[in-house]
Every structure is written in C-alpha cells, then in structure tokens.
Amino acid sequence: MAALELNAASPTVKISLPLAFQQEIFNDVRAKDQLVILARGLGLLRIVMNLLHSYDAAGDNLVLVVGAWELETDWIGEALAEQNAISKAPKARGLNIITTDAMSVEGRRKTYARGGVFAVTSRILQVDLLTELLPPENIAGMVVLHAEKVTATSSEAFILRLYRQKNKDGFIKAFSDNPELFTSAFAPLAAIMRNLHLSMPTLWPRFHLSVAESLEIKKPEVIELNVTMTEEMQQIQTSILQCIETSLNEIKKGNSKELDMEDWNVENALHKNFDVIVRRQLDPVWHKVSWKTKQIVGDLKELREMLNYLVSYDSVSFYQYLEGILASQSTTSGGKGRQNQSPWLFLDAAQIIFNIAKNRAYSGNVNKCKVDNNCGGVYPGLIPVLEEQPKWVSLSVILDEIERDVHFNSSFTDTSYGTVLVMCSDAKECRQLREYLQTNDRSVGGDYASNVTDKGGNDEEVKHTHSAAGMMRRRLRGYLTWKRDLARFKAVLNDMNKSSGITQAQVQKRQQGGFRGRTPTNKRRRTRGGSSTGTPRATGATVQAPEDPAAQVAELWRSLKLTEAEQNVKQEIAVDPLDDMEKYYGLFDSQNLVVVHPFKEDMDDRLLEELRPRYIIMYNPDTAFIRRVEVYRSSHNDRIVKVFFLYYGDSVEEQRFLCAVRKEKDAFSKLIREKGSMAVTLTTNIMELDDSQEVFLRTTNTRVAGGGKLTATVEQPRVVVDIREFRSSLPSLLHGRRNNIVPVTLTVGDYILSPDICVERKSVKDLISSFKNGRLYTQCESMTQHYKQPMVLIEFEQNKSFNLEPFADLASGIGQNDLQSKMVLLALFFPKVKFIWSSSPYQTAEIFEELKRGQEEPDPVKAVSIGVEEGENATGNYSQAPLDMLRAIPGITSKNYKHILTDIENFTELSNMDEAEIRELIGAEAAKKVYRFLNQTF
Q: What DSSP designation does 788 have?
C-alpha cells in the first residue's frame, strides 16, 4: 500500500500497488496520455483500478471506461468499492455501470451531471455523445481497455473521435496486454495510435528491467514435473499431427497462387486462433475456393481441439468424442446421409487414431467359435482397459506430499490460509478432476508405477496405489448407454433413407476423392522386410467405428456392474431446495480446502488474493498465470507459496506453451523496433480541414438552373440514422467523411439521406432472416408509401467475398425458397424500390456521399414523425431492448406494434393474454402468429 499526492488541491489518495514497476506505470500514465502495452499476468486491471480510484477520490470528475468486458467491469466495480473503503475518500462514489438503455434518457442525463466514474456500453455512448446528452466538453477523460481492438471501424474509435473533436484538454489513457495483435499487419502500432489520438506508447515486457527486479524480490518455490504420456497417447498425437500436416498441404496445393502461406505450418496450427487466421486470409476469395478447401478449413479447428482433448479428457470420453465426430460426419442436420465427409477421415492416420482410442477404453478378441462349439455358447466378452491419464497419478502423489508437509509442519508462521489451489484449462476439466479427487480410491487397484522426472535432475520411480477405476467404470457405463441410443438413432435414419429411396451407393458417390496425389487407401505400402503397414479399408471408404457383437457388449456391461463401494459414493446434488441451510451448510476450513478452478485471465488475480493459497498445482501450463503467481508472491513477503508445475513432456502441450512465450517475446521485440522508428503522430482534427471543392459541390444544387444557383448557406451534410444502426460501423465511417450524424428512433427506414431518399440497410445474414419472417416486405411497403426514392442496401462485410451463392452452384435449379428467387419477386412487386449492392461499409459511405450530392438535407423531426399516427408520441420513450424484441416477434409489424406499446406494459402481460385479447389489438391473422409464437414448446 502506498500513498500518492495527486496535486496541491486534492487530498492524499492511497493506492494498492505494492510493486515498484506497477507504481512506475501508474505515475507515468497519470502524468501524461499514453498507450500502455503490458505483458500478460502483470496486474493490468489492478493498475487501471488504482488509476480510476485516483480520479474518483479527487471528486467532480467525469471519467469514462471504454472497451471493458462485462467480467472486467464487475471486477473493477468491486475493487473500487473496496479501495474506497480502505482509503476513506469522502468524494469517492465508485463505478457507475450503464450497460443497457433500460435507463431513461432523462435518467442518464442526471446521472452524467452528477459526475463520477462510468462504464458505458459503446452503442449507448455513441448516441449520447452525438445527441450531446453527454456533452464531450464535460468529460474529464477516457480510459480505454483492450486498445488492440481499436481499429478504424470500431465503435471505440468513433467514440474517441467524437470526444477529441470537442474536447482538446481531456485525457486519454489506453491499455492492452495483448502485444501479438500489434504486430499482425503493416505498422499496426502507428495505425492504432492514430485511432486512439495518442502519440506515445510505453512497452512493459516481462524482460523489462524494472519488472524483472520487482519480481525477483521474493520468488515462489517451483517444482516442475515432466509427466510422460502413455505410448498410446503418443501414437494418437503423432497421427493427429499427420492429419493436420496433410490438411495444410492440401490447402496450399490449391490456393498457393492467391495467398501468403509462409506461416501455415504445423507449429502455428497448434494455437487456438490459427484457423481464424486461415479463414481470414481465405475470406476475400471464399467464393472461388473448392468445397474441399472449405471443409478442410473447418477440419483444422476440429483436429486442434482433438489434440487438446487428448491430454485433458479421460480415455472413454475421448473415444466417445471421436465417435461423435463420426456420427456428425455420416449424417446432416436434417437426418439424411452426408455426401461430403471430411478428407482427413480417409487417411491411414485417422484409422490409427480411432483404433488406438478404442483400445484405451476397452479391448478384446472376437471369438470366432459358433455357439454349438466348445466355447460353451458364450462369447468371452470385451475387456475393460480404462486407461487413466498419467497426470492423475502425479496429482494424487502431489496431494499426498502436501498432506505430509502439512502434518510435519503444522506450525506455519505465514499469513497464507493453507488452501490447495488446482488450476486447469477449462470448466469441463475442472469437473473431471473434482470427480477424480472425490472418488479416488487409494486402497484398491494394486501397485502402479509412474516415472516422474524432476527438472532438478532427480529421477525416481514413485510407487502408489491411487486408482480412478470407479470413475472410469462409471464413464464406460455412460458410454455404452450413449452408444445404444446412437445405434437406435442410426436405425431410424436408415429407415427414413430407405423410405425416401436413397441408396448407400448414392451416399458414397462423392466419397471417392480423398486427397490428391496420395496412394489410394486400398494400396498397401511396402516396408523393409516385406511387411505391410496401415489398416486396409475398402476403396474410397472412410473410417468406420468398430462394431462389437451384441453379446460381447452385454458381457462388458455385466462386468461393469456397480460394486458395493461405488453404490455408496455420494452423488452430486443437481437441485437443492436449500431447506434447513444452517444444519447442512457452513464455512469451509481453509487449512483443509482443495479448490479446483479454471484459468480466467485477470479474474485469477482476485482468486489468489481471496484464497491466499499456500500450495498451487498448475495442472496445465499457462504463461499468464505463472506471472500472476510471481506478482502475488512478490507483493506479499509474509506469505509462502509452493508451486507444482505439471506438463506432458515431448507433447503438443509443452510445445504450445513454449511457442506462446516465444511469440510474446518476439512481439515485444518487434514493437520496440517499431517504436524507435515510428513517426510522430499529430492529433489533427480532420473535421476542420474542409476541402473548398467539396464545399462547392456540396452546396451546388444541380436541379436549379443546371447548378448555376447556389444555396444561401454552407451546411454540413446531414444523415438521419436509426439508433439501432449503431451496432454497425457505417455511422462511424459516415461521420469520418464529414457528415453530421443525427441519431433518432425511426419507424420507416434505417438511413434518411434526403427528404426523398430512404435506405433500409441489410447485411447478408439479416437479409435472409428478413425474407423468412416477411419483415422486408413490410419495410419496402412502408418506404414506398412515404418516400419517392426507397432503397434497400445489401451490405457485405469488409475483406469477405462480395458474392452470394452463384446460380451455377444451385444443385437442383432455382426454387421459390431460394434467396435469388425471393429477391426477384420482391423487385417485381415493388418496382419503385432500388437495390444497392455494397462490398463493404467503406463503399457504402462512398455510395451515400454520391446519393446525397446536390440533394436537400433531411429534417430529423419530419423523419421521426413519418410512419407515426397522429397523436402518437414520435420519440417514444421506450426501452430499446424490449422494443427490438417485440418487433422481432412473428406477426408484429411496423404498423401494429404501436397498439401493443399503447395498451400493454411488458412482455409478462403480453404472454399471459389469450388469442382473443391479442386479436382486439392487432387483428386476427397477426394475433394468431403472435399467440402461436409465445405459446409454442421448446
């Protein structure tokens, strides 16, 4: 805890930044505007919270937090409240959160007028700044989180532009802990600095001298455990990597002329955002790539997840996951046979994956004897193998060691609570570990051996009697039940296919391709000595899940019958009425508490402070959490922390961890070089630099004497925009082209460019849904009734293919339900409506500028009143989110929704009405649709 003197007029404010580098960052960013890029895990949110507390404690400041996620907002709010209580600042008010527009306009105005620290969603903040409900001149400053996402088309960039145009003196402080995203394009740091209206970045990597010195004050005791994977796991891992490599080669083979594929390799494919990067590069030519390429791009994510599940799932769950993949590949969502299966399933490596995965769960030889032979008339049955994860044994050994340590050193003098914290990758793995620790049988299972290699060089063979047999048997019983249900489902599908006349040959007609340039799957590769490798399959066949005889499955089921010990295991309670809580609930003793928790980025800092663990077991490696433990240990000299670091040696898990560390280091090195050569960013107001030729063209009315007569005044172009459109980037781009944006609630249209031009904007996804529910027909009808030039804008996304489904790709011709057919019918029915095709929001802004040239400016008051009946409130002080939900209900149109708003208070009242009551408000046909929608079962 440190005290900081803000200025001569403000009182002394206490800050909770114990480390020297955190205080240095705080002082630097408090003194001058800058972009702070910090390595992950070094306490970014705590620095931001203390910065906000310094402004909050000073009082009479209006500070906005922009770009924060919901969890981060909640964390900052709680931490600010605690810090205010500690510092006892009389003027501190805490964090005010405005996340929805449920608060009325007048309520937001009064809240802003009182001042304080606010976290406001981007859409609301854009509208409030444009309408000057929140005057930019009254804002003391803005704190921007996740600065790496502030691109030219982002809402945050629009907010900062609106703020800086009318407020030259307020501060802007930007923060980010994701350095890799600042190096993914040409000079991205300089571009983001321009969007942030900042001129100075500061870099704080882990190898920064101040950071290194602060974290070496008191290092935690770390024990690294290199756990060896089983031979079967290594074989599956190698086969999955072969599938990934072959898939990448197949993509490169067909698209090498159009794309830069230098970084498309197996090492980069291990990261979770690799498939996103590949898709982003293919998006501009997505309509040109083959169906096989599209399928392989989706398969890359599936194969990467398979690698993760191999080291996190138990053997039975992993095999069940693989069979789920096969089931999804064999049938479509409509229940029919799938013609185009994933190409990697045709590889020999795929067969190895499925065979070995099955043998990890259960195995057995098929008895070829008939029932009347000497086999006794009984199949020998399948043998449960139930291979356990090697890390489970290591985890149990570590917990035993901790138990002995606590027993022989019962008199600890530190302030830790003695809690054991087990950190793992996700919630599913947490549930699995909890189940393992609760059912771990230490008295049965025989002697097992596990070779655990200590990084210090001590190799010892640890004998133990830990067994997860009970849990694995329960998992196998669940798998057999799932397998039986899946077989019934397949039988139903086969009956449906037979009744529809689909033959197996038709289903497999397009499965003959496989990978080009590869030996056919029925060819046997010869190796030295003449032996054959690989598993022979039928020509053109994909991987088949092994089908075991019913008698063997029955025998396996009988062998998995619940034992008496398993029947006595306490089951987790799904629903608890919480009756007599005082009898059954109480506080845990932290000295004997084992907490299993997933990684949750910055939320882990608060977890460490609340639990004060003496022992931390990192079940999975995570770079950011390692640093959080370093920061936690260095911040508390009176607490002892012992860390056990588990990882699979020579595995993808280890490779991914090392690669992440290297990528972050390389990103900071590149940023340091770019900062040294970066040009100075001048924060110039582009709105003040008006081109004289643009002014002349804008004020010339070509409809009056051929342009010979000029308008009397020079007026900035005005575009009336519906407030629901601020979810898109188009209003920001229009404002950037020197247009005055007027946000209002429009009944007809989305954009009003002139008194005669009304535009309804549709993204491709929205266009499809509008045709399905008939909303576009109603919108065209309303525009045609009130405007001379109604238009429908179909806008595609930036850097994506500017193409709908080509007519040539329609397999069975054009039907009445196809998108192209519906658009033709709409154009024939409304010949007055013009359709505009735009490849991106940038092109849309250019189109709007051309459409407005020489036109009169629209009147916002008149635009709001169009479509509103006489006597109705044009502005409509309604909550926007429920209003949007109401207008999305089938049967609700732009004409009848007003009757609902007038006579009904909320959705509860509407859902409890019968059809006759709704009919009195909106008519018979619409009431039927609304009632059916509100009362249909899930």
A: S
